[in-house]
Amino acid sequence: MRSSxxxxxxxxxxxxxxxxxxxxxxxxxxxxxxxxxxASPxxxxxASPxAQAEAPTASPATGEAPAAAPVTAAPxxxxxxxxxxxxxxxxxxxxxxxxxxxxxxxxxDDAAAATDDEGVSEEGELQAxxxxxxxxxxxxxxxxxxxxxxxxxxxxxxxxxxxxIGFVESGRQLNSHRVPEDxxxxxxxxxxxxxxxxxxxxxxxxxRAVRAQYPNVPPLRVNRLSTKDGxxxxxxxxxxxxxxxxxxxxxxxAEPVRARERERxxxxxxxxxxxxxLVTNTDVQLILVDKRVMRVLYDYALSIGEDKVWLxxxxxxxxxxxxxxxxxxxxxxxxxxxxxxxxxxxxxxxPLLALQPDQNLMMYRVxxxxxxxxxxxRHNSSVVAIKKANRMRNTFLxxxxxxxxxxxxxxxxxxxxxxxxxxxxxxxxxTQAPALxxxxxxxxxxxxxxxxxxxxxxxxxxxxxxxxxxxxxAR
Length: 475
What we know:
Residues 50-78, 93-137, 432-475 are annotated as: Disordered. By secondary structure, this protein is of the alpha+beta class. The chain has twelve helices and twelve strands.
């Protein structure tokens, strides 16, 4: 019995020695004796390796991110735009100024975008940013009286030129033009490269301005515009009435890059030249692109001396911004133009459509519970006419599909867009000469943050006598 008790005590001592915690090495003599409990994962989740790699390391003394080492150009040599763009891109991606750029949010954004229709992130027809009051009468087709317009529509609608009818998300176009082949651009899909005459001219003007600035620029890819007659273009919500166009990015070579993070591979200087040309040389309504590309373009423009107030009016003016974020636009620009003449003609012709039976059409989006017979009855049409106009073999419908509805008489409930009046182009101020290109970051070590909410659009600041103010009204 005594021997058994000794064995038990011996084993208990062994067990006590095994479970005795080994004291951890003390990092400093001033360390407190009490150890604070570890934070719960729910309170402070560990960052992923990719997020840790992108996040700047804080200084243990001050808690601030270390300043980037200045990069200066060789004495007597001006850095090329490509070198400046490389520095700006690298600094922008390293500092990551936007608080929404975490890996978790990017994955959530991309996952949602992969299941959404691309058109969800494209804005529908809205009133023009900073637009003045609606005009009392025609402004851009004033040479055509109502009687002359009616007579021309009856005899030969082609003589009226391009017309943008309805809305960008529910409309069509007449007398459209196709983007021609040219050495300065590549038409990717000719069958869907149709737009109004104004849109096609704007696209050619903007691209040729970039060629004039950079003679060795590779051809730009011109992707989708609209079909010849407009209407629904899968998978887009817009691209229906000839005013929208998808433009690719400029890369160092003619071959496009297929990587996910396009903002790391694009030629930033050439792409900013394209955006600047669209803003200053055309009546652009909006430019949709991913926020990561926006950040790189903003930082580059600021680094070459562009006016910050003007840049904020383009990037950070909220609803009135010209350049806006859109999901699934990390590899191209979605550009929408005002078409003063085509839009006004489309609005004036809408009540006259019944005079041309072949053009007396309306666009309809199928809703839950719709049947082909019910749609035909509500819109004074027929099942046979709807099937023929949409090349349907049966009467099955899918929710969200857009149908062309031939009408037997005037449409009394078709929506008509508001009168168009072009806002002033947002030209940069000319009172200050562009600053010399410098690759040295600011003293703080961080580039200006384009994601900081800007104050409402400031009132134009009067410049010296004879010089235009901050937001020029020149067209």
